[in-house]
TrEMBL record:
Protein name from the UniProt record: SAM pointed domain-containing Ets transcription factor
Superkingdom field: Eukaryota
Keyword Nuclease appears in the UniProt entry: no
Role according to the record: May function as an androgen-independent transactivator of the prostate-specific antigen (PSA) promoter. Binds to 5'-GGAT-3' DNA sequences. May play a role in the regulation of the prostate gland and/or prostate cancer development. Acts as a transcriptional activator for SERPINB5 promoter.
Source organism of this protein record: Hucho hucho
Assembly, per entry: Interacts with the DNA-binding domain of the androgen receptor. Interacts with NKX3-1.
PROSITE patterns documented for this protein: ETS_DOMAIN_2, ETS_DOMAIN_3, PNT
Biased composition (Polar residues): 1-19
Length: 356
DNA sequence: TAGCAGGAAAATG
DNA sequence: CATTTTCCTGCTA
């Protein structure tokens, strides 16, 4: 079983990232966290139940590195000390903001985290829940399936979001060179990696997919393996949407169809005002960096100017984008009557002239 | 210091 | 060609 040690490339562990980002259904944003160790997506998705697979390897040490999933979406019972094998690509756009937050707190060393999160097995589940031994297997099976499908759903959602934001298709095989560069920028942004776009210049998605992990590492010692792992997740996800083997039913609860690459207007290059709208209508994902002050009047505030401009730069493949330039582009809309400053002018606050 | 306003010119699709 | 990017000067909170 391959284990990608993605965490070592990353910032201090974003253990609570997804949870904090999602909050809980009732609006309570005080989530708690289930810790998941690290595996590749293919290991997880292609093996039916990696949870079982891992259990079968009891003599092997669990992989290092942790990810988190929102507690409110996990069956309550499985929370009792569950430690699930999974992949590390649940980190959404949100989590990169939250990485910043968690930098302040001392990172949890992987080994310590492991101690805190005992490996799931019949003992921990059965005894922990005080269940008759006969039911252990069923409960375990049930929980694992639910968690598995929940995790898959999260990953597909994240990829979906990235596709909309980047205006690319979810299948790396269909990417042109520009798409590859966008994806690289995006991944670099997510994981705070050094920019390696140049090393992968002139490569199409097909080229990328034909490369081995070693090829990736040769092009970038620093983060080649991480990029390879990330690409592997996208490939696997695309494969699941259009099953490689007919009749293979791996999706369970996460069977939404992929959105069009650009939901708003396919073909046409996206305008900045459309992009801002897209972000504003995804408060779940981007509320940290841009939000409505008054949706009815179309008044919005850019909460994190650097992040919004970075996202815009990624979308337009303009790595040098910054808020100075982005705001200049916004000001071009004044004349055109698309965006203006609200009556009471405030820093970083703008208003759509024609609110939806 | 960061944001704002707008001129000017280059780049882009 | 329209739009955006880039660079700029000067102003303001």
């Amino acid at each position: 079983m391959t284990v990608y040690q993605l965490r070592q490339h990353q910032q201090p562990t974003p253990l609570t990232s997804t949870v904090e980002a999602m909050g809980s259904p009732g609006g309570d944003r005080m989530g708690s966290t289930v810790h998941l160790p690290l595996m590749s997506f293919s290991d997880y998705s292609h093996s039916g139940s990696a949870l079982r697979a891992w259990e079968e390897e009891e003599d092997t040490k669990p992989p290092r590195g942790l990810i988190s999933v929102p507690k409110h979406t996990v069956p309550e019972r499985s929370l009792q000390g569950v430690f699930l094998p999974c992949f590390d690509m649940l980190l959404t756009e949100n989590s990169s903001w939250l990485l910043k937050k968690s930098e302040a707190a001392p990172p949890v060393p992987p080994c310590k985290a492991l101690e805190q999160c005992p490996v799931i097995n019949s003992q921990s589940l059965g005894l922990g829940l005080g269940l008759p031994s006969g039911l252990e297997g069923q409960v375990e099976e049930c929980c694992l399936e639910q968690v598995q499908s929940m995790v898959l759903g999260e990953v597909l959602k994240d990829i979906e979001t990235a596709c909309i934001l980047l205006n690319i298709t979810p299948d790396p095989m269909e990417w042109n060179c520009g798409n590859v560069q966008k994806w690289l920028l995006w991944t670099e942004h997510l994981y705070r990696l050094p920019q390696v776009g140049k090393v992968f210049q002139e490569l199409s998605g097909k080229d990328l997919c034909s490369m081995t992990e070693e090829d990736f590492r040769q092009r970038s010692m620093q983060c080649g393996d991480l990029l390879y792992a990330h690409l592997d997740i996208w490939r696997s996800a695309a494969c699941m949407k259009e099953p490689c083997t007919p009749g293979d039913n791996r999706l369970h609860g996460a069977e939404e169809s992929w959105p069009k690459a650009d939901s708003s207007c396919s073909g046409q290059p996206i305008h900045l005002w459309q992009f801002l709208r897209e972000l504003l209508f995804k408060p779940h994902n981007y509320g940290h960096c841009i939000r409505w002050l008054n949706k009815e009047k179309g008044i919005f505030k850019i909460e994190d100017s650097a992040s919004v401009s970075r996202l815009w730069g990624i979308r337009k493949n303009r790595p040098a984008m910054n808020y100075d330039k982005l705001s200049r582009s916004i000001r071009q809309y004044y004349k055109k009557g698309i965006i203006r400053k609200p009556d009471v002018s405030q820093r970083l606050v703008y208003q759509f002239v024609h609110p939806v």
